[in-house]
Write a structure and sequence with these properties.
The complex is a heterotrimer of chains A (293), B (410) and C (342). Chain B is an alpha/beta fold and 410 residues long. Chain B is built from 18 helices and eleven strands. In chain B, strands 1, 2, 3, 4, 5, 6, 7, 8, 9, 10 and 11 form an eleven-stranded mixed β-sheet that branches. In chain C, 72% of the residues lie in helices and 6% in strands. In chain C, a hairpin with a 2-residue loop joins strand 2 and strand 3. In chain C, helix 11 packs across helix 12. Classes of the chains: A mainly alpha (293), B alpha/beta (410), C mainly alpha (342). Chains in contact: A-B, A-C, B-C. Chains B and C meet through helix 3, helix 4, strand 4, strand 11 and helix 16 of B and strand 2, strand 3 and helix 2 of C.
Chain lengths: 293, 410, 342
């Protein structure tokens, strides 16, 4: 869609650019505001007394002597050991993505290549599974997990996240494999490969764009999950999102709220890096047909 | 406060190094504590942690999700936690399912330092040891009241009159603040207010609810009159929000938790004008001398599904967690139920409320269901879209459906 | 593909789903048909820091004996589904008989928790989903025109609303829309109304939640459409231009048909996710004015008393609701599938 077809009239260009600018502002403003506020004290961040405090840093100046303070970050990372939560998140996310993709690629490939009716019904059932509210699922897990001493550990949470994530992964990868020409693996089979060998030698090399895209959505699910991680992990194994909720607490204390704000900013930073890094792949994966419905 | 906390943490470490015996005289046992996450409980758990060593392990999971975990965690055999820190509402599900053990022998053996009033006895058996008290009561700004020319109110009628005067004098548009967030908080406000009518919540000896009457209407009407002097956002106000509004100096008459007293009176997050003139006092009365508030305690319970040795270790560790040393070092973190606790300005409201004859929050097995129904169903009345009678009828219907499902009503 | 090969390929994925979703699903369905045993109560003397009192307590041993005999509780058939907390058939019938007008009947209906939740859930789903698709498409078209150097950063910023945890994202916005917050103050200034508060009235709360929903989900639609735009055939565009099609016509007759499969995919995912709207309600403390099916479930499961049977019934109703909602899309997928099958 380049060349002549893309050349636009001037008013349209201005309208289009203006719209993108407005959207960029709307999308980014809350993040910029939080980043700015994370270097203030609570009185300024919430600015209940006067909203201009948030800009001027009036209370920050009174309470800390400077216009900016790193107290929130220090409290979260040093005092409350937020790095543990960050480490747990890294483990949970890494394994959830790896296992999700392994299971999902195999399953999605099978669903895409099987012409039988049951493949369709399996997909439909997967969709119904996806409709199940997570809160109900998690409450159901609690008793058996405690009973069998599985509760509180990272592997349990990883498996649960993988399972909850399977329907979406299967759907995406299935439609992605549909777009890889059937002839590829058929001809490999004619040459004497088994289905698995065909998959390994012919399909795996060409499937990466779709897998990366699906992986990113799995990543976001595991990274952002609250319902599962807050109920299934013990305090020592907590990931970042429940840890942030913990800073807020049921009776949050002065200062702790700013730990949460600083932690929110810290938790979003890796995502920035990730998106910067993978944005080309996300787009190319989707382009390659991962989501053709 | 930030610095103070660090200093406290330091003090605890020093104490543990000098006074406490490793193992607290125990030879073995696993202690694992489940509880809410706030300063007083952190102090107790840190105190219990001093008993670690010599074959005794102490660990804890302090989380805001503790209520959702406790039943499943203690039902497992062996239980995930040897102790659960509960309040007088959250002990009920544990009692209902028989998940906590009688502490009679342990109190006799290791509980010499405890006061009799700390022991929560159910049917003659000690089931929990309370260590702190809490209640919602009146906070007022003496300077604003003086400027409006009113005396500190004793009853809710006087609170309304004072609010009207403050408003008409142009001092504040929304002088009243309460924890009225739809859900548990709003339910608690109704429970408190209904306590002020002196009427019972349930028909004698049954789980049938008895609030759909004139007393219920009176309690609802008072709540509504108060919210007319509150910020229009009042249905989103929980304890965190109300404390922030108070610290910003935007309210003069607050019904807030006593545990907020310390943080509000300290110098962080607020101005001298607010902290200097904030007074904590008893909850107001509604009808006659009935104080419209409920008293709360926090205490520890020991799981039924753990070995006797672990139960003993847990009990000893937690008794160490509420020892005189812990209470002294953390005096202002809570209203401690301990002989060495020194009352302060921050605890004056809870003490006054308890002294004025307020009742504890009912420890009834079906109270939680009523609380939930109240929190969900009275919002529309406060917003003016239904009558008080309709709201109470809705509460009754919602409660009855829930109580049937849980087997309390047929 | 042979049945056997298919089986081995799908097995790990299927096993995970069966174990952690299907099994709980069956258990939830069974539990929704049961209620708890009759509680054996006794009156005891209870003492504490605030004095002694005669109170009713549960006779745990006696109740436990009942439970040991029948761990699931009492069979209740579909009664839980029809009680006041769920479909409330008796109340609805009564309201219908006593109706003074249709509006009065709807008001009575809205007074029942499940219908109140369904009301908001449906409005949210059917307002947010199309707007997300529309906004996502417009952003994608806009970003597609941005000069190549700025494209990367623009895409990155556009994705931000999607990648932050909904619970925390909505909490941050909740702080900002407070009457004293930056957005709240700006709106007061804009509408010249110093008392304006987005949290106070039901209508404004609904609008806030819907705007948040669009803001949060638009990036998902954007990224999918943007990818789709890269594959639009430029030959057909040029052909359209030569035929004298203006920009709008090109968009209408070439680009949009090309993106149609993506619209289906986004609708599918969005309808499903929006129907389960939950986190924004908690984050915005909006439960006074807006509840959803997931929120009712949350309410039943959290707090001092867990009402698992009731939550189970609501969950089953939610799944049925999603299935009905997705039926048109599913039928289409079935046709596609039959078309592709050999």
């Amino acid at each position: 869609m380049t060349s002549r077809a893309n050349r636009a009239s001037k008013p349209l260009m201005i309208a289009s650019t203006g719209f993108v600018l407005i959207w960029v502002f709307i999308a980014a403003f809350p993040f910029v505001w939080t980043l700015w506020g994370s270097f203030k004290v609570q009185g300024d961040f919430f600015s209940k007394a006067d909203w201009r405090y948030a800009l001027n840093g009036t209370r920050t100046a009174i309470e800390t002597g400077g216009l900016f303070t790193g107290a929130g970050y220090e409290g979260a990372w040093v005092q409350q050991e937020f790095w543990r939560a960050a480490l747990n998140t890294a483990i949970v996310v890494l394994f959830t993505v790896l296992i999700s993709l392994t299971l999902g690629t195999l399953g999605g490939y099978a669903l895409a290549r099987s012409g039988h009716n049951y493949a369709f019904w399996l997909l439909m059932i997967a969709l119904v599974f996806r409709a199940m509210p997570h809160i109900t699922l998690v409450s159901g897990y609690l008793l058996p997990f405690f009973e069998w001493n599985l509760w509180g550990h990272l592997p349990t949470t990883i498996i649960v996240l993988v399972a909850i994530n399977q329907p979406f992964t299967l759907w995406m990868l299935h439609s992605f494999f549909l777009n890889i020409p059937k002839d590829l693996d058929e001809s490999a089979k004619v040459d004497g490969c088994t289905q698995f060998q065909a998959f390994r030698h012919v399909i795996i090399p060409v499937m990466w764009p779709g897998v990366i895209t699906t992986g990113l959505f799995s990543f976001l699910l595991a990274y952002n999950d609250f319902a599962v991680t807050s109920m299934l992990l013990s305090k020592d194994n907590q990931t970042m999102v429940p840890a942030i909720a913990g800073f807020l607490g049921s009776t949050f204390e002065e200062g702790n709220v700013m730990f949460a704000v600083a932690a929110v900013v810290s938790a979003t930073a890796p995502l920035f890096v990730l998106v910067m890094f993978f944005q080309r792949q996300i787009v190319s994966g989707l382009t390659a047909g991962a989501v053709k419905g | 406060m930030f610095l103070k906390k660090l200093a406290l943490a330091g003090a605890v470490t020093v104490l543990s190094g000098t006074t406490a015996l490793a193992g607290c005289g125990l030879s073995a046992g696993n202690v694992n504590i489940l509880g809410n996450d706030f300063a007083a409980i952190q102090a107790v758990v840190a105190g219990a942690g001093e008993c670690a060593g010599d074959g005794v392990t102490v660990s804890a999971n302090l989380t805001t999700e503790h209520r959702d975990l406790q039943v499943a965690a203690l039902t497992a055999n062996p239980a995930q936690y040897s102790a659960a820190i509960v309040a007088n509402s959250s002990i009920v599900p544990l009692l209902n399912d028989g998940l906590i053990r009688s502490l009679d022998d342990l109190v006799a053996k290791h509980g010499q330092g405890l006061q009799p009033s700390q022991l929560i006895t159910i049917d003659g058996k000690v089931m929990a040891v309370a260590f702190m008290a809490n209640a919602q009561h009146l906070f007022y700004r003496s300077d604003v009241l003086a400027a409006a020319g009113v005396q500190p109110p004793k009853s809710y009628e006087e609170v309304l009159a004072a609010a009207a005067k403050i408003k008409s004098a142009g001092l504040m548009d929304h002088p009243v603040i309460m924890n009225t967030k739809t859900g548990w908080n709003l339910g608690e406000e109704f429970v408190n207010m209904y306590m002020g009518t002196g009427a019972p919540f349930f028909k004698a000896g049954s789980a049938e609810v008895a609030i759909n009457n004139d007393h219920g209407v009176a309690a609802l009407n008072m709540l509504k009159s108060l919210t007319e002097y509150s910020n229009p956002d009042y249905l989103t106000y929980d304890s965190n929000a109300t404390a922030a509004v108070w610290e910003a100096g935007q309210a003069a008459l607050g019904i807030m938790w006593g545990s907020r007293g310390g943080p509000i009176l300290d110098d962080e997050g607020s101005t001298e004008e607010v902290t200097g003139s904030t007074v904590l006092t008893s909850a107001p009365t509604l009808m006659g001398d009935n104080v419209a508030s409920t008293l709360w305690w926090d205490g520890f319970t020991i799981s039924a599904n753990v070995s006797d040795a672990d139960a003993e270790a847990t009990f000893v560790a937690l008794v160490n967690g509420i020892s005189d040393d812990v209470v002294r070092t953390n005096n202002d973190a809570a209203v401690w139920l301990s002989a060495v606790y020194e009352p302060s300005a921050a605890s004056a409201g809870v003490s006054a409320t308890a002294m004025s004859g307020a009742n504890p929050y009912p420890m009834l097995p079906y109270m939680g269901l009523l609380h939930g129904a109240l929190g969900a169903e009275i919002t529309e009345f406060l917003q003016g879209s239904e009558t008080a009678e309709q709201a109470l009828a809705d509460v009754e219907a919602a409660y009855t459906a829930a109580a049937k499902e849980k087997g309390f009503l047929q | 593909m042979a049945h056997r090969t298919f089986f081995w390929f799908i097995l790990p994925s299927l096993a995970a789903m069966l174990l952690f979703i299907a099994l709980p699903l069956v258990s939830v369905a069974v539990q929704s048909l049961h209620i708890e045993h009759e509680q054996v109560l006794k009156v005891t003397k209870n003492c504490g820091p605030f004095g002694c009192k005669e109170e009713t307590t549960v006779n745990a041993e006696a109740t436990q004996m009942l439970r040991d005999q029948k761990p699931l509780g009492r069979f209740n058939g579909l009664n839980t589904y029809f009680d006041r907390g769920h479909l409330a058939t008796a109340e609805v019938a009564q309201a219908w008989q006593e109706r003074s007008s249709l509006g009065g009947f709807l008001a009575d209906l809205y007074n029942l928790p499940l219908y109140k939740a369904i009301g908001f859930t449906l409005v949210y789903t059917f307002v947010v989903t199309p707007l997300v698709i529309l906004l996502g498409l417009v952003i994608a078209l806009g970003v597609n025109r941005v000069t190549p150097i700025l494209k990367g950063p623009t895409i990155f910023v556009s994705l931000l609303p999607m990648i932050v945890t909904p619970l925390i994202g909505s909490l941050i916005l909740f702080w900002m829309i407070d009457a004293q917050g930056i957005i709240g103050k700006s709106l007061q200034y804009l509408f010249d109304d110093p008392e304006l508060s987005l949290k106070a009235s039901p209508a404004l709360t609904w609008m806030t939640l819907i705007v948040y929903g669009i803001w949060h989900s638009a990036p998902f639609a954007f990224v999918v459409f943007y990818a789709g735009l890269q594959t639009v055939n430029s030959d057909s565009l040029e052909a359209a231009q030569i035929d004298g099609a203006n920009r709008w016509q090109q968009l209408r007759y070439v680009v949009i048909p090309h993106l149609m499969p993506l619209v289906i995919f986004i609708s599918l995912i969005q309808l499903m996710d929006n129907f389960r709207v939950f986190e924004p309600i908690v984050g915005f403390s909006a439960q006074a004015n807006a509840t959803s099916l997931s929120f009712i479930i949350f309410n039943d499961l959290r707090g001092d008393v867990m009402r698992f049977n009731s939550a189970a019934a609501t969950s089953v109703l939610t799944i049925l609701g999603v299935t009905i909602l997705l039926l048109p899309v599913l039928i289409r997928t079935w046709r596609d599938f039959k078309g592709k099958a050999i």
